[in-house]
Specification:
heterodimer; A: about 150 residues; alpha+beta; Beta-Lactamase; five-stranded antiparallel beta sheet; globular; B: about 260 residues; 3 domains; two-stranded antiparallel sheet; 11 helices; 8 strands; flat
Chain lengths: ~150, ~260
C-alpha cells in the first residue's frame, strides 16, 4: 500500500497522498511534510462528507477534483475508502489518473492491502464534531502504519 | 453565477454548441479558455450579439474561437452582454463559421497549428505566381521567426485568415515550415513513442488501432510530428478508454506509463 502511495507521490507536481477510511480516518499516508495527522484527518473527513453528500443526492462521483489557487486536491473513490492526492495546480491530470488506475488495480490483487482496507471497512458516515473531538475513537486498535 | 454547461472543445466543438444554444433561444455568456488564452461569446435570445478573443471582437473573434481545437468551455445563462459588436445575423454567422470549419480541415494538413513558423522557400515557386493583396501582406511579414498567429496579430487579421493565406503561400511553393520556437521550447514525442503506442494498442485492438490513434491525436489538435510531451499522458488515457476489457486496459496503461516515465 505504501509503495503505491510512494509511486503516486513520485509524480511531478504531486505533493502527497493518503487513503482515508469511510469514517475519515487515515489508513495510510505519504503526505506533504507540512501536513499533520490531524490536518490529514480533517481533509479526509471533508472529502468523505462530499462523497457522501453526492451519493445522497443521487450523483455518486468516482472522482473529485478541487481546484484552488495554489493547490489541487484530486480524490478517487475506492468504495471501501478514498484516495486523496494533494497536488500543485500544474499537475498533469491524465498522468495522475493513469498512475492511480494502475496502482489501485494492483491493490485489488494484493491480499495484504485488501486485509488492511477490510480493517477499516465501514459504512460511509461522517460526524464532523465527533471526529474533531475524539480523534481515533473508532479506529481498530494497533491498525496504524501496517501494510 | 452558476454555469449550466461545461465541457472541452475537443469533445464538444464550439460550432455545434452555438447551433444548439442558438436554436433553443438561449441567453448568456459562453466562456472559453485555452492555456493562457481566453474568449467569450454573448447570446441574447439565441442571437450572437458580442464576442471577444484576444485583441479581436465581433465576427472575427467568433471565427477565431471556432478554430480552437481544444480548450475548456463554460456557459453562464442569463449573463447580459456589455456591448453589441456582431452585426451579421446568427444564421449568416453560423453558415460562415461552418464553411470555415470545413476549410480548416484542409488548412490543417499544411498549417496544423498557428504556432508554427514559416520562412521563405529558397527554391521559390517553379510557376508564375499571382498574389492577392492580403497574401502579399502575410508574405512580407514572414521572417522565419514569427508564427502564423503572431503575423495575424501584427496585421490585425483573424487567425483563420492568416492560416488560409499561409496555406495558399505554402501550396504555391513560396513558404516552407520552420520549427516554431514555441514548439521547440516544449519537448515533443518522438517516433519511438508512437511506434510503441501503436504496437501495444494493435495487440489489443487489431488493425484499426493506428486509425484510432490518429483520430485521438487529431482530436487533441496535434499531429504526430508536433505532439508535445505535455499531452502524451492524455493521449494514452483517451486511447485506453477504447479498450473494453478492464484487465487489458490496465495492462495497456501500465505498459505505457513505463514508456512515459522513460
Amino acid at each position: 500500500m505504501e509503495a503505491g502511495l510512494k509511486e503516486i507521490k513520485a509524480l511531478p507536481n504531486v505533493f502527497g497522498c493518503f487513503l482515508t477510511s469511510n469514517r475519515g480516518r487515515t489508513i495510510a499516508a505519504d503526505p506533504p511534510l507540512e501536513l499533520t495527522e490531524e490536518e490529514l484527518e480533517s481533509i479526509g473527513a471533508a472529502v468523505i462528507q462530499v462523497l457522501l453528500g453526492l451519493e445522497t443526492w443521487g450523483s455518486p462521483a468516482g472522482e473529485l477534483d478541487f481546484n484552488y489557487q495554489r493547490s489541487r486536491v484530486v480524490v478517487r473513490d475506492l468504495d471501501q475508502a478514498a484516495l486523496v492526492m494533494i497536488c500543485s495546480p500544474e499537475v498533469d491530470p491524465a498522468m495522475l489518473r493513469l498512475t492511480v488506475n494502475v496502482v489501485t488495480r494492483r491493490w485489488q490483487d494484493e491480499s495484504r492491502v485488501q486485509d488492511r482496507l477490510q480493517e477499516f471497512s465501514d459504512e460511509r458516515m461522517v460526524d464532523l464534531p465527533d471526529l474533531f473531538e475524539q480523534p481515533g475513537a473508532s479506529e481498530p486498535a494497533g491498525s496504524e502504519n501496517q501494510d | 453565477m452558476a454555469e449550466v454547461l461545461k465541457g472541452n472543445l475537443s469533445q464538444l466543438p464550439l460550432l455545434d454548441i452555438l447551433k444548439v444554444l442558438s436554436s433553443s433561444g438561449k441567453s448568456g455568456r459562453l466562456e472559453l479558455e485555452q492555456g493562457n488564452k481566453g474568449g467569450e461569446i454573448y447570446l441574447q435570445d439565441g442571437s450572437l450579439v458580442h464576442a471577444a478573443a484576444g485583441s479581436q471582437v465581433g465576427e472575427g473573434a467568433v471565427y477565431s474561437l471556432i478554430g480552437w481545437q481544444e480548450g475548456d468551455l463554460r456557459f453562464y445563462p442569463e449573463a447580459e452582454s456589455p456591448e453589441e459588436t456582431i452585426s451579421l445575423t446568427t444564421e449568416q454567422m453560423l453558415l460562415e463559421a461552418g464553411r470555415r470549419a470545413e476549410q480548416w480541415e484542409d488548412i490543417k494538413k499544411i498549417v496544423p497549428s498557428t504556432e508554427i513558423v514559416f520562412s521563405l522557400s529558397p527554391s521559390g515557386s517553379t510557376n508564375t505566381v499571382s498574389l492577392k493583396p492580403q497574401e502579399w501582406q502575410v508574405l512580407a511579414q514572414v521572417d522565419g521567426r514569427r508564427s502564423v498567429l503572431e503575423i495575424a496579430e501584427l496585421l490585425d487579421m483573424d487567425e483563420f485568415e492568416a492560416a488560409r493565406m499561409t496555406y495558399s503561400l505554402v501550396t504555391a511553393g513560396l513558404l516552407r515550415e520552420e520549427v516554431s520556437p514555441n514548439i521547440n521550447q516544449q519537448e515533443l514525442m518522438g517516433d519511438e513513442f508512437f511506434e510503441r503506442l501503436t504496437e501495444e494498442f494493435t495487440e489489443i485492438m487489431g488493425p484499426l488501432a493506428p486509425v484510432i490513434i490518429d483520430d485521438e491525436i487529431s482530436m487533441l489538435g496535434e499531429t504526430r510530428k508536433t505532439f508535445p510531451r505535455s499531452k502524451a499522458a492524455e493521449l494514452v488515457e483517451r486511447i485506453s478508454l477504447e479498450i473494453q476489457d478492464e484487465g487489458d486496459r490496465t495492462q495497456f496503461q501500465s505498459t505505457m506509463l513505463e514508456v512515459l516515465r522513460g
